[in-house]
Every structure is written in structure tokens, then in C-alpha cells.
Amino acid sequence: MLTGGSHWGKCPAKSGWGTDHSAQRPGHPFEKPLHAPVSPVDANDDRPSLSERERDILRLVIEQFVDTAGPVGSRSLAKDANVDLSPASIRNTMADLEDMGYLDHPYTSAGRVPTRLGYRTFVDELMDTPELSEVEQEVLKVKLARLVSDTDELLSESTRLLSKLTNLLGIALTPRLSTAMLDRLDIVPLSGSRLMFVLSVRGGLVKTVVLSFEPDLKRSKMDRIVSTLNERLAGLTLHEIRDTYEERLDDLPDETGLIALVLDEASILFSEPDEGRLQFDGTQNILSQPEFQEPDDMRHLIETIEDEDRIVQVIENLFEANPDAVGQAVVRIGSETDQEEMDAYSIVLSPYQLGDTVGSLGVIGPKRMDYGRAVALVENMAAVVNRPADDETTDPSVPS
């Protein structure tokens, strides 16, 4: 009989996600990302080619629009020290960019604003990915490196810092554990005729489940049963255990009733939580953006944030389409998420590994965001959290 909830957490009794301290590694270098962000497969299909002048003007329009949140006119661009063109030449180039679909012309303004295609081209071809400042690097090192032994707290602090440093919504998704390999199962007697089952999976994550159990077993007998369970189950994924536990355990002698308990509660012991996988921080930060000052826009944003299942689905779809993206940010702009409710937003994510499992962290915000800075921060944060199964002894503070 189940008497206490199951959770993935830091053993012995902390709700949430945690890690096995024996599998820890130190922090990660905070460097300028080495790879371009991952784009949709069809991002370049039928994209009109641009001259060097058109590329320069598009980049300047987007950079100014990100800074000011207002339509960009030719006169304001002509004042830029890097532009050696007359307002008329700039105006003609902007008109050409509008005709090709890179800029739009709000009817209430003489200026232009970027379209999704304009942002996409900027991210793929034009943006600079800056190095983090020394102060920011120190903040990340101090605040994140000390939490590397507690994944739950590490992800929570990562989302808080991402939101604070970008003024966007910081998000983190914990891994799905169906593919996680069981390293070891332990059973810890508790007071009140209860047992705590501790499942340690590869990568350091720990799941605990508390079950009621009346018989008073000697520790030596319990240890023998635990040893037998590990012989039968360790090295299998949780998915494999859920599918085959009966045939693997049904033939075991069970004078104590402990094997029967495991068989009866296997669906709980070897399941993974569907709730609470998504962490986010910074709702007030994103609500302060100019795009969300109207009540309808604000309400739509809040409804989007509260729809956890939708956001989780968007994130998982991104990485199903980009299975080799570990170490690189994935940027999706507006309709590229394939979710109509997300058309007003962009999402910048990077996956991280915990053993055999993959989670992700990043930011969600309006399409008008500083993509280069978001990519730099997200990739650095993911590097801190990352602990691949085949690299647990590597010191990530030493660049490869």
C-alpha cells in the first residue's frame, strides 16, 4: 500500500529533483559559445538573398528595434556612425527589405519593424554572440557552482538568473527518465512500519518512494533481498523494468512479502512524475516588456505561461527534431514552434545531459529580444548543469 508520495529528489526526504553526490563534477568554463544556434530544418527554404548593404541595414534595424521597441526610420539609422548612406538610400533599402518579407511597415508609423523572417535571418547569419562580462561570469560561478550537487536547486537558480540577466522568462525542464538506467535500488526502514525505496539512476538523479510494510525484517535479510533485486534490475532502464518486472521477479522466493510489495507497487516505483517537470521564473520581468502592456496581451501571456503541458510539448518537440543539439542553443521564433498560441513569442533553449537523460533550459520572451545575449547565457548555463554519462570524471573547468 502506498502511504507516501514518490519524488525525484535529494535523498532522503527532499521533494523535487536532486543528485547522488558521488557523481558530481565541478563547474564549467564560461566562454563565448563556439557553435551557431540550431535553426529549423527548412529555415533557409525560399529565403530571398540579400546584398551586403541589405544585410547591414537589416541588422541595424533589428538592433535598434530591440533597444527601443519602436519602429525604426531611415533618419534614425542615418545618424548611426557605422552608416555612410543618405536617409533616402536607407529608405530605399528598407523598402526593398519590406518587399522581400524581412521588414514590416506598421500603418501608424513611417518606420519599419522586423518580421519573423527578418529575425530568423538575423539569428542565422547576422548576430554577434557576445562573451559574458567578468561580473556576470563571476555571478554564475559563485551562484551555480555551489549548487552543482543539487539539481533541483541548480535548475531553480538557473531560471532565476536567466530571467534576471535577460529580463525574460527563465525556464528549465527536468529530464524524462524512461530511458534512465537504474544504477542501484536501496531500501531504508523508516518508523511507523514504512520503507523508503531509493532508486539511483545513471547521472546522479535519485527517486524515493515511501511504502507501508508491516513485517519487521532483520537488516541482514532485507540486504539479501535488495542484493537480489539489484541483480535482476540494475543496468536496465526504468522503461524496461516497467515492461518486464513480473517475468524478472515472479520466480523469486518471498517468505517475507517484500517481493510481493515490489511487484504490487512496481508501476509507482518505476514510474516518472508527469507533474512538476517545468520550472520557470521571472513572470514580472516579461510582463514589464512593452509588448505586454495591453490587458489582452498580458492575459494571453499569463495563459500561455500557465499552460505547462503546452510549453513542455513545444520543448520536447524541438529536441526530438534536433537530437544532436547538446551544447548548442536552439532558437525558435514565433510560428516556428508550430503552436499558434506561441506565435507572439520566441524561445531560446539549450539541452543538458544528466547521465543517459536529457533536459533543457532557456528563456521565453517576445520576438523582440536580444538573441545574441540570450544564446550566450543559455549555453553557459546549460554547460554548468551538463553531466553526460560517459564524461563523469572530466573536469569541465579545463577547456578541451
From TrEMBL:
The keyword GTP-binding does not apply. Residues 152-375 form the Heat-inducible transcription repressor HrcA C-terminal domain. Keywords: Repressor, Stress response, Transcription, Transcription regulation. InterPro entries: GAF-like_dom_sf, HrcA, HrcA_C, WH-like_DNA-bd_sf, WH_DNA-bd_sf, WHTH_transcript_rep_HrcA_IDD. GO terms for biological process: negative regulation of DNA-templated transcription. The keyword Hydrolase does not apply. Pfam families: HrcA. Residues 1-49 are annotated as: Disordered. Negative regulator of class I heat shock genes (grpE-dnaK-dnaJ and groELS operons). Prevents heat-shock induction of these operons. HAMAP family: HrcA. Belongs to the HrcA family. This is Heat-inducible transcription repressor HrcA. It comes from Salinibacter ruber (strain DSM 13855 / M31). The gene is hrcA.
